[in-house]
Write a structure and sequence with these properties.
Blueprint: H1 7-12, E1 16-20, E2 23-28, H2 32-41, E3 43-47, E4 52-57, H3 58-66, E5 81-87, E6 93-102, E7 105-112, H4 116-122, E8 129-130, E9 135-141, H5 146-153, E10 164-170, E11 173-179, E12 187-193, H6 197-208, E13 213-215, H7 218-228, H8 236-240, H9 262-271, E14 275-282, E15 294-297, E16 300-311, E17 316-324, E18 333-338, E19 341-348
Helix pairs in contact: 2-7, 5-6
């Protein structure tokens, strides 16, 4: 497992480390519920040591990347970010990716459900360099996440549109700042030199103190993605793999003539998608659902659980189920075959709450 650029700082701050496909990552800081609450109500900062980072020049890399990634990379404008996916030759999801067109530089950030070597293999024909070990990536999320950035680098960040990228300076450290996130709240991804990782983390935490900032880890992020209904490549993505039942059509450009996995995905699309991922919630007070548990409708098998966890917004256990398409909609009553017996559940629309960030007017702060 490679060393995290911020590992010693994070461990000293109380982080419990884990790994994801050989990459270092923070699991939690001792109280996952408090970490989730911080992101939903204030701000949270995560060291994203599991994210793979590649860099190239726009002129050299943009068209080769367009022939690998599912989204329309070729039409990416300067200062903008594309949220798309990387699939293998069988059309199965390998990575959830942000591709940023940053002046003359192109930046690729991947959360993968496959080893680093597999991502590198799929990108082998692209003139990009794996700089994962040379940078640190931080995710700053929450309805007040704009606060520490505004105070540290200036009010300009308040005008950043969603899925945009800018360069900023923090006490002499060059930052790539992406307006992006996967929690349903305001979000920013920050790329810094690995040598300055501890400094950047410390400055963000110090500046965020008055906004209620807290560090958070992957355990909290998985829950935030779940009830925020952001695709989690390491939960439902790792289990289901097929982007069509996962509902990822919006990440793919079917008008493009070439990208990795295109033919396999189009063939499955033409044959018809038999299943679809839908949210569900257990009845109040019930617990014990697990990935792989079967959902039944009127006693007949209808699908299985592909992700699950506790939702603070709902105040109960919830999850995502891969359901037969004929019953893949909200408002149906199911039972879940759990290890402790049948559990009552209802399919629901997601997210089940209004994100606090929607009530914030950045032009007024």
């Amino acid at each position: 497992m490679r060393a995290s650029p911020a590992a010693s700082w994070l461990v000293n701050a109380g982080a419990v480390m884990t790994e994801r496909d050989g990459a270092p990552a923070v699991a939690h800081y001792g109280d996952v519920a408090a970490e989730v609450r911080a992101v939903r109500q204030a701000a949270g900062l995560m060291d994203a040591g599991h994210v793979l980072v590649f860099k190239g020049t726009v002129d050299d890399a943009i068209y080769p990347l367009d022939e690998v990634f599912a989204g329309n990379v070729a039409n990416l404008r300067y200062g903008r970010v594309l949220h798309t996916l990387l699939a293998d030759e069988a059309g199965l999801v390998v990575a959830d990716a942000y591709i940023a067109c940053n002046d003359d530089e192109i930046l690729v950030l991947c959360e993968a459900c496959a080893p680093r070597q597999e991502v590198a293999r799929l990108l082998a024909g692209c003139p990009v360099v794996d700089v994962t070990d040379e940078v640190a990536v931080f995710c700053l999320d929450g309805p007040k996440s704009w606060g520490p950035l505004r105070d540290l680098v200036g009010r300009d960040i308040l005008g950043m549109p969603y899925l945009s990228v800018e360069n900023h300076d923090l006490d002499g450290t060059a930052l790539n700042l992406l307006r992006a996130g996967k929690t349903a709240e305001f979000g920013y991804w920050i790329v810094a030199p690995a040598a300055d990782a501890a400094k950047v983390h410390g400055r963000l935490m110090a500046a965020g103190a008055k906004y209620g900032i807290a560090p958070y880890g992957l355990d909290a992020l998985d829950l935030l993605k779940l009830d925020g209904r952001f695709f989690n490549v390491n939960r439902e993505g790792r289990v289901a793999r097929d982007p069509l039942p996962l509902g990822l059509q919006w990440m793919m450009d079917f008008q493009k003539e070439r990208w990795s996995g295109r033919d396999a995905i189009l063939a499955r699309r033409a044959a018809g998608v038999a299943r679809k991922v839908v949210g569900f919630a257990l009845a109040e007070g019930l617990q014990g659902v697990r990935v792989g548990d079967v959902l039944r409708l009127d006693g007949d098998p209808a699908g299985e659980v592909v992700a699950c966890g506790w939702s603070q917004g709902l105040g109960r256990d919830m999850g995502l189920a891969l359901l037969d398409r004929a019953v893949a909609w909200a408002g149906l009553d199911f039972t879940v075959d759990s290890a402790t017996g049948p559990l009552a559940a209802t399919s629901i629309s997601l997210p089940p709450f209004v994100p606090a960030s929607l009530e914030v007017k950045l032009d007024e702060v």
